[in-house]
Amino acid sequence: MRCPSCSNETPGHGRFCLACGTALAERPADSSAATVAIREDTASTASAGIDEGRFPAGTVLAGRYRILGLLGRGGMGEVYRASDLILNQAVALKFLSAAGHASEAALARFRNEVRIARQVSHPNVCRVYDIGMVEGLHFISMEYIDGEDLDSLLRRIGRLPQDKAIEIARRICMGLAAAHERGVLHRDLKPANIMIDGRGHVRITDFGLAALAGEIGAGDIRSGTPAFMAPEQRSGAEVTVRSDLYSLGVVFYEMFTGKRRDASRTTPSEHVRDLDPAIERVMLRCLEEDPRHRPASAIAVAMALPGGDPVAAALAAGETPSPEMVAASQEREGFTSRTAVACFAGIVASLIALSFLGRSIFLPAVAPLPLPPDALAFQARQILKQFGYSQVPLDSAYGFYYGDLSYLDWVARHDSAAKWKRLASHQPALVRFWYRQADHYLQTAGTFFPPGSLSEDSPPQVQPGDARLILDAQGRLVELSILPYAAPEADPRAPDWNGLLAAAGLDPSRMTPATPTHIPPMFADARMAWTGTYEEGRPDQIRVEAAAWKGRPVFVTISGSWQAAENPSAGSLTLVDQIVPAVLFVIVLASAALVAWRNVRAGRTDPRAAWRIAALLFVVPLLAWALVAGHVPGFWELYLAVLGLSWALFVSAAVWMMYAAIEPYVRRHWPEALISWVRLIGGRGRDPLAASHVLAGALVGLAGILPHMLGDVVVNRLPGHLAVQPFPAASTLNGARTLCGSALVLLQDSVFLCGAFIFLIVLLRLAIRRNRAADVVFAVLYAFTSYARPLLWHLGIAFLFAYCAMWLLRRFGLLSFVASYFFGSIVPRLPLTVTGYFAGYSVLVIAVFVAIAAWCLYAILRAPAPFGSLSAAARAQATLTR
Predict the structure, then answer these.
(1) Cα–Cα–Cα angle for 90, 94, 97, nearest 5°?
(2) Does residue 180 sit in helix, strand or coil?
(3) In a domain, 134, yes or no
(4) Residue (of 271, 591, 540) closest to 411 by Cα position
(5) Which of 151, 188, 276, 309 is flagged as catalytic?
(6) Side-chain half-sphere of 201: how many Cα atoms within 13 Å?
(7) Cα angle vertex 248, ends 244, 251, to 5°?
(8) 3-class secondary structure, 482
(9) Among 35, 233, 422, 781, which lies 20 to 30 A Cα-Cα from 456?
(10) Residue 50 belongs to a domain with what CATH number?
(11) CB 593, CB 441: distance < 8 Å
(12) Domain stop point among 328, 358, 380
């Protein structure tokens, strides 16, 4: 007996082929038991009335389907062409055989075919509509395909022309990838289960043996056609996506060679001399015995086929390319080694330049911080002991913040050669140190984020013994606020006003007593005020107000003439300023939630990427809260934990909604912008394209800061101007723990704002419908909303930076845009200048960013060769290898 699969002669009446294992008695030469085969020969036979099957033409079933003719007959039953009288469309009806009705397992497999097939919706997969019963017979209604199966086509014409075979192969890959994306394994992929209609469109049919990847039992692994089974499936070890890819390789072998793959394992090129080497490599990789050596997905196989682009083909067909298809796109494969090294060198040079320029414009460098926070906290406690408060507190907290920045404007208007010396003297204190202590645990819900973070005014002073001190960077008193105990002392002493002035670093001989005008916020039985100057000859005048209770100071504040010249309400927010951002924020979130809901209902989202980003934005705020919040033992800590979890969940949910709302539109209209992003989110941290785009974004983000800083250096040389910036963030100067926590907060803010920017960009592009015009509008909006510099020069720089970021988005994609905003917004807010006590932290920060760039450089250099210089065949091989 001759095997229909490999043509091997089997002696006797064996049931299986000795070479390939095909079931000889069960597989007809022209059909498959589980195939919805629509063949010209059977169709013509039916139409001629030779064999009309169980239901003659014209029969109306269930009052809905009119039988038009028998299409085919196999081991599982019969397939008829019919007309749906209700919907007025042609359908195919697949009836289960009588033997199948007698078997509960066959009935279960029949129902499972409908359940599984309805989960896959793709132009290259035959649509299954429903299951029904008529006259006691089960049937499936499905899409009618006016054509023939690939098996009969190959037997009729032999091998396909190479160009046509590539086109059909790519469409088979797309359909199979759609099934795999839903977790469905076909398990019986073969030419008899692939239909080609009259227009050349391809459909994968017959999901009778298909199953969800996690639902295949050990006893059901071997189900399928042996000649097309992967070795691991035939042995009963396992069946996976790569098992389907083995079957796909066997199908390709027949398509491109016109021959069945026999036991001799003849290479395709031995049958077809002029076969493209890339095609042969694809087939041989799919046919690897070890599944680990096969391609990772059907998309990778499609991308490795020569010519064409599945992403472009999907867009041309009006489809939205899947995330896997986008990730596998080989439109660009990263920088060459020379370009990558140049970008890395530019990043390192930019970081060094930022550190150097920051010495003349960053506030903690202009006014150096000689003492670390612990030393200043010790000094604060010494001042309290000097004032008579010697009790040991139960809890304390401290840190830096920026205050009294209006003095910078006053210095600019009263320009002199001594301005830099005055700023470095810390009188008045522009960088301030706050110290809080109490006889109870300091408990607060804190600022907006992180919940529970302590500050100079949170929690408020409410209990006796609560002390709040503000010092300058050299440990001199600037403000004092202490709630005294109610019990009076037996022998109250007179306040030591000179000691108070000495603690503030003021010379009593330059201070003139004045009438107190400031009412202290706590009860006091003595008040005093002075006016004077910090040093002889300085034009700025200061006023000191103090109060005492029972001989001990309870209140001190120092103000200056520069504050009197300022409008007290100039820095305060109006009601409109507070309401409008809140309303816009709610509108954006509500819009994102609505669009995200529609995308989820329509199945357009990329759930894996969305959940990964949401998980990241849940962990980052939670870690920031753990590092920055003021933790206390007791029930209050549980309350803080609830607040921290709530905020992390809110940020995570908001980012998830924005991503689910935006990503499908970007993937639909600009899929090339997501290639490197999807790869990185998918876990390919060493992908050379993703690494290249991070390098490009980092370089633009860092280089974009330099013109601003150079402009500030120029401004500082102009008379009547002073450009000293309150960078880095004061919270990053409080020590290693708060530095890490603050960095995480900045990371959270940058990702959140970047998501909002991208949401706005997508809206502008969809509304204006011209990408370049929309990019210009966004750059203008960004420049004006971030315009807080003294010269129009900075406005132009902000516009150029935003437009460069938009150019990155067009040229390299979303990942470069995010990287540019991340580096451009976070780096200036972290310590960079190697000055003061935090010089070590600055070196650490620079080293971290250099390490990120070095990792990207390594990912590019480790690639075997620059992808831009490879041939199409080599790129295909590289795609499969990855």
Answers:
(1) 155
(2) helix
(3) yes
(4) 540
(5) 188
(6) 14
(7) 140
(8) strand
(9) 422
(10) 3.30.200.20
(11) no
(12) 328
Residue 820 lies in a domain: no
Give the span between the Cα atoms of 612 and 681, in whole angstroms. 7
**CATH assignment at residue 277:** 1.10.510.10
The DSSP line for 830-877 is S--S--STTHHHHHHHHHHHHHHHHHHHHHHHTSSS-GGGS-HHHHHH
Separation of CA 480 from chain center: 46
CB distance 743 to 826 below 8 Å: yes
Q: Which helix (H) or strand (E) holds 544?
A: strand 542-549
Model confidence pLDDT, tens digit, residues 624-682: 999 999 899 988 899 999 999 999 999 999 999 999 998 998 888 888 888 889 889 88
Q: 542: domain range?
A: 395-565
- Are residues 734 and 399 in contact, defined by beta-carbon separation less than 8 angstroms? yes
- Mean per-residue pLDDT for 175-201? 91
Domain end position, chosen among 278, 298, 328: 328
Residue 738, both tokens: 């708060």
CB neighbour list of residue 85: distance below 8 Å, 6 or more residues apart: 60, 63, 64, 65, 66
Q: Which residue has the tokens 């017979």?
A: 137
Overall size of the chain counted in residues:
882
* Whole-number Å distance between alpha carbons of 398 and 455: 8
Q: How far apart are CA 133 and CA 128, in angstroms?
A: 15
Q: From 356, 237, 251, select the one nearest 301 (Cα to Cα).
A: 251
Within 13 A of 195's CA, how many CA atoms are on the CB side? 23
> What confidence tens digit (pLDDT) does each residue in 698-746 have?
999 999 899 888 888 888 888 878 889 899 999 999 999 999 998 998 8
Cα 821 to Cα 694: distance, rounded to the nearest angstrom: 11
- Which residue in 114, 111, 103, 94 sits closest to 33, CA to CA? 94
Query: Residue 8's Cα: distance from chain center in Å?
Result: 54
- SS3 of 738-785: HHHHHHHHHHHHHHHHHHHHHHHHHHHHHHHCCHHHHHHHHHHHHHHH
The pLDDT assigned to 431 comes to 95
Active site residue 188: yes
pLDDT of residue 881: 40
Q: Note whether 754 and 818 are within 8 A (CB).
A: yes
Between CA 612 and CA 388 the distance in angstroms is 56
| Encoded tokens for 466 | 């609560």
Amino acid at 741: G
Would you tell me how many other CB atoms lie within 10 Å of the CB of residue 121?
Answer: 11
pTM of the model: 0.72
